[in-house]
Specification:
mainly alpha; two-stranded antiparallel ribbon; 5 helices; 73% helix; flat; transmembrane; transmembrane helix; membrane; 7TM_GPCR_serpentine_rcpt_Srh
């Protein structure tokens, strides 16, 4: 398979090749995450059942709940390794934060110039919330 990828590289642009490489890395990371989040809890569960540990039902419940995080971890790995996804997620998360900071900065500092002396007075206004 590696040889065929090298042969295809001559027909692809550099951007397409880079995107394919990031997708390949993402698939490998997803495979590792999927394997570890399912095989480790299942293996420990088998040992807990076979050797009859105290509180085995609680341990098995917690381990199976941890195994269910595979989907979440898989999505996070995709968003981390694929650059267009990462940029889109950061834009979605940072736009509301930037707007909030901009409003906060506009409401927190007020600069006043004193007419007689020409000095600058600075006062801060605290944002009030109605509870």
């Amino acid at each position: 398979m590696h040889l065929s990828v090298k042969e295809m590289q001559s027909n692809l642009t550099q951007a397409t090749h880079n995107l394919q490489k990031t997708l390949y890395i993402s698939v490998v990371a997803e495979t590792i995450v999927g394997f570890t989040t399912t095989s480790i809890p299942v293996t420990i569960t088998l040992f807990v059942i076979l050797f009859s540990f105290p509180y085995a039902s609680y341990v098995v419940t917690v381990l199976l709940m941890l195994a269910e995080f595979q989907i979440t971890l898989s999505t996070i790995s995709q968003c981390y390794f694929i650059k267009p996804f990462r940029k889109a997620v950061l834009n979605l998360l940072l736009i509301p934060i930037k707007k909030c900071r901009k409003k906060e900065n506009q409401n927190s500092v007020m600069v006043v110039k004193a007419p007689a002396t020409g000095s600058i007075l600075r006062s801060t206004r605290l944002a009030t919330t109605n509870v």
